[in-house]
Give the backbone structure.
Amino acid sequence: MILLLIALMYFFMIRPQQKQRRQHADMMSKLKPGDEVVTIGRLHGVVNEVNEKARTVTLDCEGIYLTFDMVAIQRVVSRASSATESNDQAASSSSADSASAAAESADSEDSDSSAAAASEASDSESAASDSAEDSASDSAEK
């Protein structure tokens, strides 16, 4: 009976932990600059430097460089691609960004002009109602 309990504990508790530890070690061995990672504190950043000897990783978090122990890396969000692929992606993303920025500015101009027209219409309606109220109150006083 006790042997059965020990065997269940091994297969349900110890073995899955060993598997996770092995997967994490494999992930850390494949870590390289340019990889996007998330730390155990939920900090997102891009790997700038990996120091295997000291077992540390330097992350670029929007211009701020932070050094962490390798065990602090929870998961890799995306792997760094080769230099040619990243150049192609950067060129395509910059052209897509400029196209989307142009579309957004056109949309904002349309919404600004429609908002201005709506504001003018509501101002003229309120002015008309104010003048109607004034004339009604003037005639009531007489």
Summary: Helices lie at 2-29, 83-141. Strands lie at 36-39, 44-51, 56-61, 64-69, 73-78. The chain has two helices and five strands.
